[in-house]
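COMPLEX REQUEST
Ligand: NAI
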Amino acid sequence: MKTITLIKGDGIGPEITDAVIKIINASGTAIDWDIQTAGADVIETEGSPLPNRVIESVKKNKIALKSPVTTPIGKGFRSVNVQLRKELDLYANLRPCYNLPNVKTRYDKVDIVVVRENTEDLYAGIERQIDNNTAESIKRITRGASERIAKFAFDYALNNNRKEVCVVTKANICKLSDGLFLESARNIASNYPQIKFREILVDNCCMQLVQNPNQFDILLLPNLYGDIVSDLCAGLIGGLGIAQGANIGSDYAVFEPVHGSAPDIAGLDKANPTAMLMSAIEMLNYIGEQDSAKRIKLALFETLNAGIKTADLGGNAKCSEFTDAIIDRLAVLAKN
Ligand code: NAI
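STATUS: Structure written out below.
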């Protein structure tokens, strides 16, 4: 039986995690979950929001499924998510965005993969307070990290039958840092003549995404633009409740939804577990459980097609009801 680290998170984290575990169990795939807690709740007892045991668990098991963890704004501890990605060198943040059945959106046939560099840029949190009225953040970009993520994007394109990689920067203004990211992408693109290469500035990219998202295939971005643009892409397909994600490195992979801990709906049985479930489906594919991944996705799609949806998608199903509906369909699929 495969052992996988399960990071439960906080806010809606525990609800959507429990939902997804129930669904995976119902699919018949046996996984030994190595449950690890992280975030504000463990600081008092363990002195850190990301105790070493969490990192060690992922290092041992190689794969983790993670639900969101709250990060205090403006003060307090550093983001557990950023720290985890850094410690495990999960350099590629992969966020496929495509329409799900019976989820009403402005555009049909959106099928964009956001590939976001995950280790540097303004996200590295290199900041200093110069005086009471001045603060500074350093945007650090290196050739090594930029070429590595560009190679990831092009390899992903090749392996997944995609046609184009579009690099997104603000290299007209951040001429050195974004300029280096762009130059690195150009260098790597020259090794992949079979994949089209395109360049766009991030402001224009946002406008084009809102007006005509179907023109895009794979978007390749530095960390901060990737963070922002992937939420925009989530909005194109129905919102954060359905947007999946994965953080992938050379040795480890952590699958997690794009959204945060949604404190506004935590504990109310209102959260949509789909983003977490879609992330888990990709995790199952990654560990070779394609059959279970396929059945769970089919059961999810059938549930949506039957009009059973959580409030964020305009429905009235609670998180638990939506979960049970998927499990009912899995049972029917197992009999056929
Ligand atoms: P958020 O993604 O938690 O919520 C934004 C909006 O989307 C809220 O209205 C929320 O109710 C809704 N939403 C999010 N997920 C949903 C779901 N599954 N079902 C239904 N509605 C959903 O973003 P916010 O409020 O900016 O961040 C809250 C906390 O989460 C912050 O502390 C932030 O740092 C943290 N965060 C953690 C992430 C992670 O652990 N990977 C990623 C993003 C944010």
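REMARKS: The CA atoms of residues 82 and 124 lie 8 Å apart. The domain at 1-94+240-336 is CATH 3.40.718.10 (Isopropylmalate Dehydrogenase).
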